Structure formats: C-alpha cells, structure tokens
Amino acid sequence: MRDRAQLARQGWTLAGLAGVAALIFAWMVIRPPARPVLVPPPPVPDPAEDLPLDRVSERARALFEAGHHQESIPYFRRLAHDLDHNWGAFYNYSAALHNAALETRIRLGRKDPAVRSSYERVRMEHQALGVLDLAERRAPKPHERGLVIDQRGQRLHIWGFPVDALRELERAQALEPGSRQFQADLDEALAIMREGHGEKP
Questions:
Q1: Cβ proximity of 132 and 105 under 8 Å
Q2: DSSP state string for 117-152
C-alpha cells in the first residue's frame, strides 16, 4: 500500500517506533479535542508570513520534495490558512505534519528521528489527523473524500491501529466501489492482518 499524499509517499512500516509513543498516541486518540484546529504558529518569526502566496506554494513544494518536512510546515500552514475552502491545501498540510513526525536525520553516523521527543512526534501526528479531518469536510466529491479517508487508514496502520485502519479503508472503498486504488489498499490491509494472525490467504 502506498501513501498518496499529493507531494510525498509513505510505506506501511515505521521502524523504531517506541512503545511509549504508541501509548501516548492511543491516549490522544481516545481523548480527541472537541474540534480539530490548525497548528498554532511557533513563537519564532514565521518565514511564510510576508511572502506572496505563489512564493509560499513554491517554497512548500520545494522543501517537501527535498524531504525537509519540518521546514515545510509553516508554508503549508499558510496555504491552508489562506485557502480555507480548498481541501487539497489541508490535505497537503496534514501530509507535511505526518511526514515531519516520521522524518529522520543522520546524527553521528546514525539515523535518528528529526523530532527527538516521542511525545512531540505523537503530538505532531495527532495534529496531522486533525487537519486531515478538516480536509475531509472540505472535499466536495466522493473520490476526494475517499482519498482523505484512505490516507487516514494508512496512517492509523502505520501507528499500530490496524482495526481502526481497516474501518477507514472500508469507508473509502464504499465511497467509490469501482476504485482500483481503494480496493487494492483494502485488500492489502486485509492480507497483512491475516498474516499477523497466521491465516493463509
């Protein structure tokens, strides 16, 4: 199964995810905020604040494609803020947050998480899922809503929630039964679950 965020892709597995991160994430999912909100700007100058929107978009894309996901967040946040009714702006902003939570860097010859605190990584992913909810509300067509829901299912699987992931993938497939993409993602999730339970395909 592949991540189909418009600017980047993610695989199914997340190497080295600490058990404490999964527990914190589970607690956050069980106790969601009353309503999803945009991530507040950091207490440092926002590099995207005074740029024209076309430059913001160019910079966001360049950073994202270069794998500098943390650096891309202010630019995608600005796009979501200014293009409030555009589902794709929120979809991409969520992808930037998600990829930043998983981003790695080489330190002393070793690959480490770019965000070193497990709590901060989990908090960032929780925010990414909240922004994805906003994208779903703005998506005008079944296929676009399906893309958002499918993406949510993949992320829940990455973070160790296969049952919740399967439910979301089934929702996406139900929105567009003829979609090969959604059906393939659902089939792969089912196959992975069967393998985990020792079942034969």
A1: no
A2: -HHHHHHHHHHHHHHHHHHHHH--SHHHHHHHHHHH
pTM: 0.75
**Is there a contact between 53 and 82 (Cβ–Cβ < 8 Å)?**
yes
Q: Give, rounded to a whole angstrom, the gap between the first and last alpha carbons of the chain.
A: 17
For tokens 């926002």, the residue is 46
DSSP 3-state assignment of 64?
helix
Residue 119 φ then ψ, to 5°: -60, -45
Q: Among the residues of the chain, which ranges form H helices?
A: 19-30, 53-65, 69-82, 87-102, 118-138, 142-158, 162-175, 180-196
Output the six-digit token pair for 69.
Answer: 């996901």
Computed over its alpha carbons, how large is the radius of gyration of the chain? 17
Mean pLDDT, residues 152-171: 93
One-letter amino acid of 23: L
How far, in Å, CA of 187 to CA of 5, rounded? 20
Q: Tell me, what's the pLDDT at 36?
A: 55
Instruction: Please compute the mean of the pLDDT values over residues 9-27 and round it to a whole number.
Output: 48
Task: Read off the pLDDT of each residue in 133-150 and give the average, rounded to a whole number.
Answer: 96
Q: Judge contact between 152 and 129, C-beta under 8 A.
A: yes
- pLDDT band per the 50, 70, 90 thresholds, residue 66: very high
What would the pLDDT profile of 174-189 be if each residue is shown by its tens digit?
Answer: 999 999 999 999 999 9
